[in-house]
Amino acid sequence: MTSATRVHRYQVQIVWTGNTGEGTANYRAYKRDHEISVTGKQAPILGTSDPLFRGDADRYNPEELLVSALSACHMLWVLHLCADAGITITEYSDEPLGLMNENADGSGEFTEVTLRPVMKISDAGMISQAKALHHRAHELCAIARSVNFPVVCAPTVLAG
Questions:
Q1: How far apart are the first and last CA of the chain?
Q2: Three-class SS of the chain
Q3: Are 50 and 105 spatial neighbours (Cβ–Cβ below 8 Å)?
Q4: Can you tell me the distance from the alpha carbon of 62 to that of 97, in angstroms, rounded to the nearest whole number?
Q5: In a shared domain, residues 68 and 47
Q6: Rounded (10°) angle between helices 127-140 and 62-85
Q7: Does residue 122 share a domain with residue 66?
Q8: Confidence class for position 24, pLDDT limits 50, 70, 90
């Protein structure tokens, strides 16, 4: 580690809340429900597995949280870079899509996530610069830099 490197720690707590009275006596005996929390944060994230794997469709699953983390990290970098560049963003949304293969042994792996941010800026003359900053944000995003599958960014920048 060089002297310029700083280490940031992120500690969470995961508590399984899906014991229905039999523990994990068999595959169907328990719920996949759990809570994700961080000391000092307001409310836990209610998690589960994907409904295809006996999860609760009303709760977040790890796959959705991974795709969300990629999108949120990208958005936060774009907001920062645009603010620094004097580009005023007035609206921002994203509907990212993650693709995961399920293997014959039941394991899975993401093969790609596509970010599809739609951003509105106040100055039409800065659209091309704003699009370029999406690519820079992608290079800086810690989450995108940490995964072993492609993260594609297909931004739309509008003026208005």
A1: 46
A2: CCCCCCCCCCCCEEEECCECCCCCCCCCCECCCEEEECCCCCCCEEECCCHHHCCCCCCECHHHHHHHHHHHHHHHHHHHHHHHHCCCEEEEECCCEEEEEECCCCCEEEEEEEECCEEEECCHHHHHHHHHHHHHHHHHCHHHHHCCCCEEECCEEEEC
A3: no
A4: 14
A5: no
A6: 130
A7: yes
A8: confident
Q: Give yes or no for residue 17 having a pLDDT over 60.
A: yes
Give yes or no: residues 33 and 54 share one domain.
Answer: yes
Give Cα separations from 98 to 15, 29, 54, 86, 126 (angstroms): 26, 30, 20, 32, 30
- Residue 50, domain extent: 1-60
Tens digit of pLDDT for each residue in 35-57? 999 999 999 999 998 888 888 99
State mean pLDDT over 85-99: 96
- Distance (Å, whole) CA 102 – CA 110: 9
User: pLDDT by residue (tens digit) across 128-140?
Assistant: 999 999 999 999 9
Q: Are residues 68 and 11 in the same domain?
A: no
This prediction has a pTM of 0.89
The domain tally of the chain equals 2
Q: Check: CB of residue 108 under 8 Å from CB of residue 66.
A: no
Same domain, 53 and 73: no
